């Protein structure tokens, strides 16, 4: 067992969820916490450890990737801000993964960026009264805030599955 469920911050509130907004935000927050928990108590070398060749995936790479995903959907798409990607690059395939090296400064930067993007996303959602808020995409279609929230839950769920396997490979810790 990863941790005693009574101590698990994902279940601390214990209240029943009421409504679409509360449900979506609770699930998204739980997956964000899961990502943090999967990376907890690891040093830079462990965080940067690759899964299995030829994959470039690592826990640190996941943090960098999710910082860019949060930034893209909430800052660039929903807020329509001119905010270039943090790690992703059209010129360098897998830049967010390849740059995830065992350097404390790289680890600190990744966590800082991820936390800043999560904070921006949380404020954007809190300040948005309507989950039906639609914004234009580059391809001419529009996307609603609720769709972005569901997509983020899906994105974290998939990558938390990757994090499960990466963490187990690092130190055998499973669950949660």
Name the assembly state: single chain
Q: Based on helices, strands and strand pairing, what is the structural class?
A: mainly alpha
Task: Give the overall average pLDDT.
Answer: 92
Total DSSP helices: 6
The ordered H/E elements are: HHHHHEEH
Report the strand count: 2
Detail the poorly predicted runs.
none
Q: Largest sheet at a glance?
A: 2 strands, antiparallel
Q: Which band does the percent of strand residues land in?
A: under 5%
Q: Please give the radius of gyration in angstroms.
A: 17 Å
Helical content band: 55-70%
Textual characterization of the structure:
It contains six helices and two strands; from the N terminus they run H-H-H-H-H-E-E-H. It has 176 residues and is mainly alpha-helical. The mean pLDDT is 92. Helix 1 packs parallel to helix 6. It starts with 18 loop residues before the first helix and ends in a 5-residue tail after the last helix. The radius of gyration is 17 Å and the shape is globular. Helices cover 57% and strands 3% of the residues. The protein has helices at 19-39, 44-48, 59-78, 95-98, 104-127, 145-171; strands at residues 134-136, 142-144.
């Amino acid at each position: 067992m990863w941790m005693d469920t009574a101590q698990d911050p994902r279940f601390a509130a214990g209240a029943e969820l009421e409504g679409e907004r509360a449900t979506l935000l609770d699930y998204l927050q739980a997956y964000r916490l899961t990502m943090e928990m999967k990376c907890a108590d690891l040093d830079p070398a462990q965080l940067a450890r690759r899964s299995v060749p030829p994959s470039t995936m690592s826990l640190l790479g996941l943090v960098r990737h999710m910082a860019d995903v949060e930034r893209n959907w909430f800052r660039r798409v929903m807020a329509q801000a001119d905010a270039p990607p943090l790690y992703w690059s059209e010129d360098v395939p897998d830049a967010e993964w390849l740059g995830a090296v065992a350097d404390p400064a790289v680890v600190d930067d990744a966590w800082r960026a991820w936390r800043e993007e999560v904070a921006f996303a949380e404020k954007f959602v809190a300040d948005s009264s309507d989950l039906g808020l639609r914004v234009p995409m580059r391809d001419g279609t529009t996307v609603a805030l609720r769709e972005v929230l569901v997509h983020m839950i899906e994105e974290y769920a998939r990558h938390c599955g990757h994090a499960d396997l990466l963490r187990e490979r690092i130190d055998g810790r499973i669950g949660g």
